[in-house]
Design goal:
Structural class of chain A: alpha/beta
Strand content of chain A: 5-15%
Helix content of chain A: 55-70%
Largest sheet of chain B: 6 strands, mixed
Distance between the termini of chain A: 51 Å
Number of helices of chain A: 26
Largest interface: A-B, 174 and 167 residues
Strand content of chain B: 5-15%
Oligomer: heterodimer
Number of domains of chain B: 2
Shape of chain A: elongated
Number of domains of chain A: 2
Largest sheet of chain A: 6 strands, mixed
Order of helices and strands of chain B: HHHHHHHHEEEHEEHEEHHHEHEHEHEEHH
Number of strands of chain B: 12
CATH topology of the largest domain in chain B: Rossmann fold
Mean pLDDT of chain A: 73
Number of strands of chain A: 11
CATH class of the largest domain in chain B: Alpha Beta
Shape of chain B: elongated
Structural class of chain B: alpha/beta
CATH architecture of the largest domain in chain A: Up-down Bundle
Distance between the termini of chain B: 50 Å
Chain lengths: ~725, ~575
């Protein structure tokens, strides 16, 4: 845990105002999750949240002042109603002619109209302010959230970010839309009504104050109990929802294993727990109102007694006493709603702190650009890969120069380091020098992994002393048993994680000399080491692209989904990419072809189709280096073959690392690297490794089962001539 | 448990009826509370009238005492009334939820056909809540009606004219407000929908974060989100303006009504038709009346929503079963002879297959859809269109599907794990005292638990998504083996498992199922190698049957299917 926090704050080291309490808050927040080693995303402190809101509001000061002034005016005008009513009572009490009632009546109508108009205008200004600030906040949040290092997101658990982007944004939105104007109106009404009572006679004000201590203690009592209770309620509701999804989505398994009774019980238990907490919440609210009833009565009685005494003493008229009583009666509603809204305000503030916590993350500032001189020294790793997410130069021109510096420094270091660290498995390099096709100039990159050790938790090494070089245009398959560290190595190369020690250097591809060195002469294309994405091999898109078995389609028209990989792509580009992965046919067959809405709420695609789209995005992103981590595993056994062919074409002409699930896919690679227990144990072509009778040979044997006689059959189908297969 | 084909009305009636005591008590006490609230402005008038105007200390004390009694009564009625009302809603919601889950889990199935799990879960939460809320709406609606009636009585007793002005004026005012804001409301609803779009887009982008980062699409996504957010902001602002306009209008109208009541009341008081106190009460009641009238409008909207939700719930409850239940029992002990005779279903054509007790049979289907059809027939996810499936010479149609499943387990390829530890999952369906060790060893779970932080006590979450694909599959297989059924059918149990482990699992499977009928539907050569014989299902028909090695040698289609 400590180590993780260090790393998290390490990321912030040069960032703008570092949130000093971040570490402690993260620790607190993790309480429940600590068993799973979660490290929630940061939450801003109260001071930081206020500062952020101030900063967001500052440009709209005029709007804020105008809105506030109008709301004050509206409330103040509204307070004329009670004295006017009192005036009418006095007129009647003094037995004045009924015609005299007309003036206060007209004034009452005028007050109503003015109050209505100012309220409408004031509210619309206040909501314009709130909504604009909210929109800016959510944009900043999303833009930071999408650039957070995956490492950090994964440590926090995917749910954390999702909860913030959905629940917290909507809680703050609701507050801005409903609670904030209502609270402002109520508080203004209370304050001005009290003032008005004081204006009638200061003794009415004192009488009304009797209710305040009861209301204040009630409010404090309520918030103290409500906050933890509502937190518990949210957890219970979440657990209930999860259980329902568990049971309903798994209904077939539940039936198959005869678990109907147990699952009904589980749902009942979770639902009962939620009901019980709901009722506790109800009791709390009822207690709250009961206490407020006491305050109401005490205040009303005091005001009436005061009126009685003052009228008897002759210092105020009956009308004034009436106005005071009506004032107090009219306070009930705003007081109740203000006190209830305290709770909304509380949860909105907490949600806001979580949003600001992420929006404050210094992920895209120039200071984060990695200068990876020290990547070999553990504990001294700068912010690193975040930088990778840095954008095309144009949009962040201001960052240009530090980026360049970083790149230049990186390029200075690469040549002196890389060549004399020729990977240990370079025994194989000589061999595969004749295997791969010539790289396509300008597209393929190189990868060199040197002396890498990695552990997600101290003492549990996942990778041990790994050296691996991918030459330009080379396709390397990574195979080995589950838990061998294949995915971890893939993630390190893709820049998702930084190695605990050692270095990973990825270069983008213009003019790669000979394919055996990690050296490159083009400074701008020298990817910062673990940041891998700030270099641009082809003028757009990342240096390394990673496709995993994860299936997600972005909601919206299919063309838009694909354009996430290359915004400028024309429809023809999209069709070419789809053709490359064998998807054009079914895409054209969709109801509206490329414009068909897919994803959440749209046309449903099979998981094999979803993966074809992922591969098409890879083609569009056109990276010099591609990492495929079991990208074809989601398809059933029959679909896998087609997806593999699509994957082959998608990485054609790129330097590729393919974590192969099925050995047929590995067999067609330029080189196969076998991992076991976090180490590379073997490397070479399919034939070489089969002949070597090492671990790969036995894997192959196990995979192809009992086929003793037909041992070479599959290779005739898929393997014999990789060059022709891939260069089709 | 649930009526055979309930309608939305049945659901609603049952939901209210099931809580009728709480609903009735809530309505009664809620009415008491409303009467009390209506009396407060009346009593303020009385105090002004009897005590303040006449400087009568005795009257002051008397009426403050009455006010205190009214307060105590209204506070207590509120407390217990609202408690009953809310409890009736929460309990009704809970019972609907459990009923829905029972229906979904019914052994004869059907409820989840054509419905996404998320949508069903939503019906069990949101719609159940809406229907439950009808109880609260009823209670508050009835109370509000009583509050309005109280006002009417008080006002009409003091003056017919003033009473009519207030009683007719307030609904007219609300109706006017509604009428004027109606076009605004419709517009603002549409706009709020567009506003909600921004957060949906954000959630979607975050859900695909890894993919986005994988291809370096963050910048494009951020730009795209900003556009959406701006559009959404414009829509929200239009909606907010409309709403602000509406609030202002309601305020103006209310103010005008009060002015009219004061004018009419003032004239009546000046003429001596009513007392000053009654004038004060009338103004207070006019203000108070807005509350219960709004509650009525709200209750009406809740009822409409409740009806719609009840219809959705009824639809699920009324879904037909996919298979029927029979009443024959299985002869005990189950021998495990499975026979398919002329079975046609989906892509299957006249399949005849005789599986001997204790046999370990492999099934290779050239089309995965045919494999699924076969499994559905065996699991009674559906009954074959023609032909019969028998277990120990009893047709599956004559059996209760629940009883069938205690004898024959069909373990799906994508079987879901459930919340709990790895061990909980493995033993979920195991006989009580059975040792899960052998099943875990056979399925290769022992290696899985070694790699997990808390070993076999590691918690599994999100239906097993917290484990890797290969780990999940092995735990699911161990669960199927530990269930120890006389007949076991497994489907592609090792697609995400590496080759070495797969070979170990194949051997373990053979060993642990020795002497009991086991069918492995797969194209994995490692698993097929340990079977007694393999049937090849090509084009929906069984085209060959022989040991794996023989088929490998002689059958090109088979080789292609297994080695592709």
């Amino acid at each position: 845990m400590t180590e993780q926090i260090d790393r998290a704050s390490g990321k912030q080291q040069d960032g703008p105002p570092p949130s000093t309490t971040e570490a402690t808050e993260a620790t607190e927040a993790t309480g429940a999750d600590s068993a799973r080693g979660r490290e929630l995303l940061p939450t801003a402190t109260a001071a930081r949240t206020r500062a952020a809101v101030r900063a967001l509001t500052r440009p709209h000061r005029g709007l804020a002042a105008g809105g506030f002034a109008l709301m004050v005016a509206a409330t103040a005008v509204g307070l004329l109603v009670q004295p006017l009513l009192g005036r009418m009572v006095d007129l009647v009490a003094d037995r004045r002619p009924t015609g005299d009632l007309t003036l206060p009546f007209v004034l009452l109508v005028a007050v109503a109209l003015v109050q209505g108009a100012t309220t409408a205008l004031g509210l619309s200004l206040v909501s314009r302010l709130g909504e604009t600030v909210l929109a800016q906040l959510r944009e900043r949040f999303v833009s930071k959230a999408l650039r957070l290092p995956l490492e950090q997101v994964e440590k926090a658990g995917a749910g954390d970010l999702t909860a913030r982007v959905t629940r917290d944004v909507s809680v703050v939105g609701e507050a801005v839309r409903n609670a904030l104007p209502e609270l402002a109106r109520s508080l203004l009404a209370i304050a001005l009504t009290m003032l008005a009572m004081a204006a009638l006679d200061w003794r009415f004000f004192l009488a009304a104050l009797i209710a305040v201590p009861v209301q204040a203690t009630t409010a404090r009592w309520y918030v103290r109990h409500a906050v933890p209770l509502y937190a518990q309620q949210r957890i219970a509701t979440g657990a209930q929802q999860q259980q329902l999804l568990d049971t309903i989505a798994g209904a077939r398994s539940v039936r198959a294993f005869r678990l109907e009774r147990e699952h009904t019980e589980r749902v009942t238990r979770r639902s009962s727990a939620a009901v019980e907490l709901t009722m506790r919440g109800v009791r709390l609210v009822l207690d709250f109102y009961n206490r407020l009833h006491v305050a109401e009565y005490a205040g009303l009685a005091a005001v009436l007694v005061t009126g009685f005494l003052l009228v008897r003493g002759g210092s105020v008229s009956i009308g004034t006493a009436t106005a005071a009583a009506l004032y107090f009666h009219s306070l009930f509603a705003p007081v109740n709603s203000a006190l209830v809204l305290l709770d909304d305000a509380q949860s909105a503030t907490a949600a806001l702190a979580r949003l600001v916590g992420v929006a404050d993350q210094p992920v895209d500032g120039p200071e984060d650009r990695p200068v990876d001189r020290h990547s070999d020294r553990p504990g001294d790793r700068p912010g690193g890969r975040l930088a990778g997410l840095a954008p095309d130069g144009a949009s962040e021109a201001a960052d240009g120069s530090p980026q360049q510096q970083a790149s230049e420094r990186a390029s200075e270091q690469s040549p002196e380091r890389a060549p004399n660290r020729v990977p240990r498995q370079s025994t194989s390099v000589g061999r595969d020098a004749n295997a791969p096709r010539p790289p396509r100039a300008g597209t393929a990159g190189t990868v060199s992994v040197t002396g890498v050790h990695h552990a997600y938790e101290p003492g549990r090494p996942v990778l041990v002393d790994v050296d691996l070089t991918l030459r330009a245009g080379e396709r390397v398959a990574l195979v080995g048993p589950s838990g061998a560290g294949k995915t971890t190595l893939a993630k390190l190369i893709a820049g998702v994680h930084r190695p605990t020690s050692g270095s990973v250097v990825v270069t983008g591809g213009t003019g790669v000399p000979d394919g055996t060195s990690t050296d490159t002469t083009d400074a701008t294309d020298t990817g910062p080491v673990h940041g891998s994405r700030s270099g641009h091999g082809n003028g757009h898109g990342p240096t390394v692209a990673l496709v995993t078995q994860e299936t997600h389609v972005f909601a919206g028209p299919l063309a838009q989904d694909l354009r996430l990989a290359r915004d400028s792509a024309t429809d023809d580009d999209l069709r070419t990419a789809l053709t490359a992965v064998d998807a054009l046919e079914w895409v054209e067959a969709l109801p509206e072809a490329l414009d068909t809405v897919v994803g959440e709420g749209g046309h449903r695609l099979t998981s094999a189709q979803v993966q074809q789209l992922a591969l098409a995005r890879l083609v569009l992103a056109d990276p010099p280096v591609a990492v495929l981590d079991e990208a074809t595993a989601e398809a059933g056994s029959t679909g896998a073959r087609l997806l593999e062919q699509a994957a082959d074409r998608a990485v054609d002409g790129r330097t590729a690392l393919v974590v192969a699930h099925r050995l047929t896919q590995a067999a067609t690679a330029d080189r196969i690297v076998v991992m076991d227990g976090g180490r590379i144990v073997e490397s070479g072509t399919h034939e070489e490794l089969c002949a070597a009778a090492g671990p790969y040979a036995s894997l192959w044997q196990a995979w192809s089962g009992t086929r003793t006689a037909a041992h070479q059959t599959p290779t005739h189908d898929h393997r014999p001539d990789t060059t022709t297969l891939k260069d089709v | 448990m649930s009526p055979s084909y309930p309608t939305g009305r049945d659901v609603l009636r049952k939901s209210v009826g099931g809580q009728r005591r709480d609903v009735a008590l809530g309505s009664l006490l809620g009415s008491g509370h409303q009467m009390g609230e209506a009396l407060v402005p009346v009593l303020i008038g009385v105090v002004i009238d009897r005590a303040v105007t006449r400087s009568d200390t005795g009257a002051l004390l008397l009426w403050l005492g009455v006010l205190a009694v009214v307060y105590v009564a209204l506070a207590l009625s509120w407390r217990f009334g609202a408690w009953s009302g809310d409890r009736s809603a929460a309990m009704a919601e809970h019972e609907l939820r459990v009923t829905l889950v029972r229906r979904v889990l019914h052994p004869c199935g059907g409820a989840e056909e054509g419905r996404l799990p998320g949508a069903l879960a939503n019906i069990a939460t949101e719609d159940a809540k809406r229907v439950g809320a009808v109880n609260t709406a009823l209670m508050y609606g009835i109370s509000a009606l009583v509050g309005i009636l109280t006002c009417a009585v008080v006002l009409l007793r003091s003056s017919l004219t003033l009473g009519l002005v207030v009683l007719l004026g307030t609904p007219v005012l609300l109706w006017l407000g509604h009428l004027l804001s109606k076009p605004l409301e419709t517009r603002s609803e549409a706009e709020q929908e567009r506003a909600a779009h921004a957060s949906a887009v954000a959630a979607d982008l975050v859900a695909g974060l890894r993919i986005l980062k994988g291809i370096g699409g963050e910048r494009t996504a951020i730009d795209r989100y900003r556009t959406t957010s701006r559009e959404s902001l414009r829509a929200t602002l239009r909606a907010a303006r409309a709403q602000a306009f509406q609030s202002g209008m309601v305020l103006s109208l209310t103010g005008c009504l009060i002015a009219v009541v004061a004018l009419v009341g003032g004239r009546l008081a000046a003429e001596g038709a009513i007392s000053l106190g009654q004038l004060v009460s009338a103004v207070g009641l006019a203000l108070f009346l807005l509350g219960p009238l709004e509650v009525l409008a709200w209750a009406n909207a809740e009822l409409a929503q409740g009806r719609a939700s009840a219809n959705r719930i009824a639809e699920v409850l009324a879904t037909g079963h996919t298979v029927t239940s029979g009443d024959r029992g299985l002869p005990q002990p189950v021998r495990g002879a499975v026979r398919l005779t002329g079975v046609s279903h989906g892509g299957l054509r006249e399949v005849d297959l005789d599986i001997a007790p204790g046999e370990l049979l492999g099934v290779v289907a050239t089309d995965p859809a045919h494999a699924t059809d076969l499994l559905r027939c065996l699991a009674r996810g559906a009954d074959p269109d023609t032909g019969t499936v028998t277990l120990d010479d009893v047709s599956l149609r004559d059996l209760d599907p629940a009883e069938l499943r205690t004898a024959m387990l069909v373990a799906d390829h994508d079987a879901d794990l459930f919340e709990g530890t790895v061990l909980d999952n493995v033993t979920a369906a195991a006989p009580d005292s059975a040792d899960p060790g052998p099943a875990m060893a056979a399925a290769g779970v022992t290696q899985v638990t070694l790699a997990l932080r808390d070993g076999e006590h590691t918690a599994v979450s999100e239906r097993g998504r917290s484990l890797s694909g290969g780990q999940r599959q092995r735990v699911a297989l161990a669960r199927a083996l530990a269930a120890d059924r006389p007949v076991l059918v497994v489907h592609d149990p090792t697609t995400a498992v590496d080759t070495v482990t797969e070979a170990g699992i194949a051997a373990g499977l053979r060993e642990i199922r020795k002497g009991r009928t086991t069918v492995v539907v797969t194209t994995s050569p490692a698993l097929l190698a340990v079977t007694d014989r393999v049937v090849l299902l090509d084009g929906g028909r069984i085209t060959d049957t022989a040991p794996h090695a023989d088929l490998m040698d002689r059958h090109a289609t088979y080789r292609a299917a297994v080695l592709a």
